[in-house]
Amino acid sequence: MSVNESVVQAMTMAGLNLIQQALSIYDNDLNLVLANARFQEMFDLPGHLLQPGTSFEDTIRFLVARGEYGEVDDFEEMVSERVERAKAFEAHYLERQRENGRWVSVEGTPLPNGGWVAVYTDITRTKRQEGLLRTRSEELSDQLLRYAEDLSSTNRELESTIVALEEAKRQIVASEARMRLTTEMMPAHVAHVGPDRIYTFSNRRLSSVMPGRPKNVVGTSIETTLAGTYVKIKPHLDAAFNGEPQVFEFNDSMSSRRIRLALTPDGEQGDKKGVYILSMDITEETQTRAALQQTRRRELAAQMTSGLAHDFSNLLTIILGMQGKLAKMDLSEKANELISGTLSAAHRGGELLNRLADMTSQRTPKLVPTSIANLFSELQILSRPAVSQGVDITFENNVPNRQVLTDIGMLQDSMLNLILNARDACGQKGAISVKAEVEKETWLRIEVRDSGDGFSEEALEQAFDPFFTTKGADGSGLGLPMVYDSTQVVGGRVSIRNVSDGACVTLKLPLRWVQERVKPGLTLLVEDNSDLRSIIRDMLISLGCHVIEATSVKEALDLFEQVPDISLVLSDIKLEGEATGIDLLQQISDKKVPTYLMTSFPQSHPLYLEGAAIAPIIRKPFDSSSLSKFLSISGGV
Fold first, then answer.
1. Predicted confidence (pLDDT) at residue 467 exceeds the cutoff of 50
2. Structure pTM?
3. What secondary structure, in 3-state letters, does 112-166 show?
4. Distance between CA 562 and CA 560 in Å, rounded?
5. What pLDDT digit, counting tens, does each position of 158-178 carry?
């Protein structure tokens, strides 16, 4: 409890102790909440019965046992009766004579949230005056005397009733004020119209929901207030007056806003029947909904395009292969012109398919031969100007002088992010070290260490969560999540930890050595389309390769077991059966044979993303020269 609350409570209690009446308040469970000093004095109660939380039953039991209610035949029945009467929480007024001869009036009033407050008044003096009046007024008849006594009692009861009514009025007024405040705070127009279609209640939100309309509409006609739009509402309003709730949307002609209207009958009957109205501006919601629908349509179109592109790109690859064969024949000049035109048209068709497929694509791995030594050299040039002069940055490359297959763009972006984070941790003075090495011939391991304060406990748990940052307004919270995503997408891992002299971030990337160029050898071609397989076989043969063919993963694995001299694998991602070319490459990864994938899937397709993380991919359609360039760049023939 705050100091102010304690002061207010003390002052309130002091005020209650000054009044002449005894007062007690019990909650919904008949446990004491508050009692003033007069309550203890009047009934001579022990201190433990005045403690908050004391049960009403304990107090009644004490009073009955002491004889407060005179002699009773059944002690427990008397206690039970008083408790049950109290549980009813009904307003009451009564007068009774205590065991000491004094008279007391009891006024009980239920509270809004359960429980009740009771006020006890000593009316002994009043009763004595009534007694004196009876004995000394011989001129008054017994009937008149009883009337006077009844009138006095009734007046006291009426006074109690008036107090209760005033409290009820106060509560109703407060409740109405709270309800009006609540309706004013709502981002909607809340109103009620009577059977004459006149507003009987309204918050002041109509002008914000439908700009151009008045704020105060109580007493006006809904038809006049919503002129121009009422014709759209009237059929639904008629249905609501007939007892049918309505929810519908319309465009407000004056404001051009999209409005959702809910009409609810108020439950009255006959001529008193009215309707409650709830109006909400859903313009932004409608626009967002339309945008989502458009996005969904584009996604469906992209899926359809992807399926069509897959088959059509296969056909274009066949056309390119056949035209390539024709171009090598000794044909007339006119025929060569036709071949050249066909090849040009097929290439344009392939470019169009790729553009359509890439419309919804995201960034995907592009594995290319990469020299870690060259990468470190470039990073040193790029990072040195961004680091303070007082910060020492070193690069240590323990990777053998061989190229690895990785996405150089993603890796460089990740390394720069980590170096800049390390710079921020060091401030104006410190040390940053970047180290690369091969771990168990399985991982390319890169560590970035700094001599800063290290990661907090919170950062160790949430560092990879988007938008989490410990840099306040200077941080975006996207650096480490980007590093995490870029590493995960190529099948790698990221970890962070604190070390003795600062913090350390470790990247583990799958180690894929680029195979040294070898003379064209035995190539395993895996493709389930026979026409396309024939064309690609001829392309490989033209590059000097010997080719064996398979249509499924099972058939390709059987060939691997039977033919030991396979030196290169080129597989489509989608193959005959459930297994894919990705499954094939994963199962032969221990063979140390250069492997490549081909596909017509867009870069956003899950199988493309999965395949790009383990091997270079060539997109269909392609011709002999494109295939030659692809295999040459990727370290093949």
1. yes
2. 0.40
3. CCCCEEEEEEECHHHHHHHHHHHHHCCCCCHHHHHHHHHHHHHHHHHHHHHHHHH
4. 6
5. 776 676 666 666 666 666 666
